[in-house]
Amino acid sequence: MVVDDHPMWREGVSRDLAAAGYDVVAVTGEGRQAIRIAAAARPDVVVLDLQLPDVTGVEAILGLLEAVPGIRVLMLSASGEQQDVLDAVKAGATGYLLKSAGLTEFLEAVARTAAGDTVFTPGLAGLVLGEFRRLAVEQPAADDGGAPKLTERETEVLRLVAKGLSYRQIAERLVLSHRTVQNHVQNTLGKLQLHNRVELTRYAIERGLD
To answer: Looking at the whole model, is its pTM more than 0.85?
Structure first.
């Protein structure tokens, strides 16, 4: 689903996605409508603009995640402001891409988002990781001695997730298949009752696994 309040932009993005083989189930320019449509259409990925006429980007993200738990939200925004990026990620966005990105970069970001990977315009990943580290120092994680035990391989993958590596990079580092890395991440998310890689990264950093 594509959500953007500029008709020419959202129509162009929709055409590019359709041409690349994606099924665009809905297109809208308003956040509240997007939430209602998502609840019915249940898209796997939402390409969402930060600036909407009726709600903030954060409100849209929260509403989408409530309407369709597990939905993946890729922000596509003209703003690279630090606070905008951090607010979107903390609300549950899977990735954040600037509108200055080229078509190839955009389509790769959509594919990675659909696969559960985190995607950021170069430079923004370090910003997010830095913020998570700062918060980990200010707000140490509570003792979770009762938390589910991760296998040695799951912990190894988790450490690399916390360093900001993509699934492909982790697979190359550990000499595993892309699918195996995805499975380890999904198993870890299930064990820890987390929803996406952003939450997993924060969990790992809070526990000093980075």
So the answer is: no
